[in-house]
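Recap from last week: sequence in, structure out.
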Amino acid sequence: MKKGVESNMLLYLALGFLVLGTSVYGILQSKETASLSENSFLSTAVHYSLDNDGSISTSEKKK
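Predicted structure tokens:
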């Protein structure tokens, strides 16, 4: 009977770590996606500016 209780506790502990790990991974993945989106927007803006003018103005550098 004692082995059954210990094995159930171990099972719940493992499931808890699995849920916690999945949650942390999801949070970090969503933050990384937001960062990549912001970097993509910035690089696209710089690319268009260089294509049109050939240089980046001071106001664009500050942005």
